[in-house]
Design a protein that fits this description.
By secondary structure, the protein is α/β, with parallel strands linked by helices. The chain is built from 6 helices and 7 strands; from the N terminus they run αβααββββββααα. Strands 1-4-7-3-2 form a 5-stranded mixed sheet. It has a two-stranded antiparallel sheet with strand order 5-6. A hairpin with a 4-residue loop joins strand 2 and strand 3. The termini are close together.
């Protein structure tokens, strides 16, 4: 899975997003991704629709997480964005219609192939249930440190 791990980059780690809703969160993240040339103009509507139809919140043992993603045609190039919001953002729990998760850690998958998406989701879920990995992730304050920890646990 070297290709997926390589998509994590320090400039795609954000600690400065503060949003009161998923919509506001996706707007801010979309602005950042658009500035860096990663997404198409269709990304925002597509990710909201996908999240509504297939919720991505997950209550891991140590923290609430979300792994939102959309289809490859809404990307200009592949990426993995990591967001540690200033306050948790409410996402609907995966596999439910109304159970909420306060996401303290969000990984937005921007992968170009469906099979990579499944593999990335499995690896990320494995990392989120590993208490050592979660402790290291929570301790990070820089993009470089975050990418190093993620690569360590996903490699």
């Amino acid at each position: 899975m070297a290709d997926i791990v390589d998509l994590f980059k320090p400039e795609l780690v954000f600690f400065d997003i503060e949003a009161s809703s998923k919509e506001e969160f996706f707007q801010q993240l979309g602005d950042k991704l658009n500035e860096q040339g990663y997404i198409q103009d269709t990304w925002y509507d597509a990710i909201l629709t996908r999240e509504k139809n297939f919720p991505t919140g997950l209550q891991a043992p140590e923290m609430g997480v979300a792994i939102p993603h959309t289809d490859p045609e809404h990307l200009k190039k592949a990426y993995m964005a990591v967001v540690v919001p200033k306050t948790p953002i409410q996402f609907v729990h995966m596999g439910t219609e109304d159970e909420m998760v306060g996401a303290e850690f969000i990984v937005n998958l921007g992968v170009e192939h469906q099979e990579n998406q499944v593999e990335a989701l499995q690896k990320l879920m494995g990392m989120f249930v590993n208490s050592d990995a979660v402790a290291e992730l929570k301790a990070q304050t820089t993009g470089e440190g975050m990418v190093e920890v993620i690569r360590k646990y996903l490699a």
